[in-house]
Amino acid sequence: MTGTSNVWALMTRNLRQSGILIALVALVAMFSFMHPSFLSPGNLTNIVLQYSYILVLAIGMVIVIIGGHIDLSVGSVVALAGAVSAVLVVQGGHPWWVGVLAATGVGLLVGAWQGFWVAVVGIPAFIVTLAGMLLFRGLTAQVLDNVSLSPFGGTYYNIANGFQNGLLGGYGYDALTLIVFGLAVAGFALVQVRNRRAALRYKQAVEAFPLFILKIVVVGAVVMWFGYQLAVARGLPNVLILLAILIIVYTVVTQRSVFGRHVYAIGGNLPAAQLSGVKVKRVNFLIFVNMGFLSAIAGIVYSSRMNGAQPAAGEMFELDAIAACFIGGAAVTGGVGRVTGAMIGALIMAVMTNGMQLMGVSYSTQQIVKGLVLLLAVAFDVYNKRRAGAR
């Protein structure tokens, strides 16, 4: 019975972890069949550029959700960070890095402000960030004096629109892009091997070795194919380098650090975390400081991509980020979720949006589809929890 239970647990875990990846592959296959240009190098590059800021927000949002909170203000913080940067760089004539530092400082201050009300005063994050959504949107309008500011140009513009191309040569392709993606595949394979060895050491159930090898080969082939498409287009986008750094850093933080373990503990069982000596107020404060920081990074990326700042920038970004996390496997009750899952969830949103736009689907229909996908993702999570409880 124990062996059967282990196999069932392994199958259930693999379904949860791989289901969203299978869904992403199915979406890509469907849209590539329905619109031939979907898999063109230019369109794949555009997907990365157009939705990079949602990916950045999803990294911070999944940590917030794991901790048992929610943040409705990130779209307004994106707008405020971009507005402050534009006032300094576009209107004030300061160097690009002054705008970046100022926007980052604004994000950290916003995070500290909201973290204080949540962690110290004890107001639920939903209320604090709902107030923040209104407050920071109003501040954005005041900072910009209700007008748009553009263009940034120069180095600031290249943050989200520039490419690394030709540094290592290549005939008809960018060699650096292929090398970077090759290293990423090698890193993925190494992590998978280490995780498998650790699971075997602790006598945990693992998939059959041929299936394990097949998974690495398939993932490696898909990643290298994607890298080749970028290499033959415009090369390695600067914003993809930024995303890779953030994903690696925050994967380590959430999975390997004391702070990450404490976030999972608070979201999973708050009373137990308190009894275990976790400094709940400190961790909750840092969760929102980090969310403010990543919102500012997203604001810099978005304003760079748009080459300007607008009072209405960032509207509905919070909903896209939250949806990406839940589609990516985060639990509505907290304590469950991964950065990589949130990234796949965000890519599912990006692929759906891009594919429907290519097909000429109306905006209203796009919103309906996104809403249904989010609802089904959460329903799947609830269904799995009920089955686990029943057993």
From TrEMBL:
Gene Ontology molecular function, alphabetical: transmembrane transporter activity
Coiled-coil regions listed: none
Keywords: Cell inner membrane, Cell membrane, Membrane, Sugar transport, Transmembrane, Transmembrane helix, Transport
Protein name: Xylose transport system permease protein XylH
Predominant localisation class: membrane
Mode of membrane association: Multi-pass membrane protein
Record function comment: Part of the binding-protein-dependent transport system for D-xylose. Probably responsible for the translocation of the substrate across the membrane.
Transmembrane segments annotated in the record for this chain: 20-39, 51-70, 77-96, 116-136, 143-159, 171-193, 205-228, 234-253, 283-304
One Gene Ontology cellular component annotation held by this UniProt entry: plasma membrane
Compartmental location: Cell membrane
PANTHER family per UniProt: ABC TRANSPORTER PERMEASE PROTEIN YPHD-RELATED-RELATED, XYLOSE TRANSPORT SYSTEM PERMEASE PROTEIN XYLH
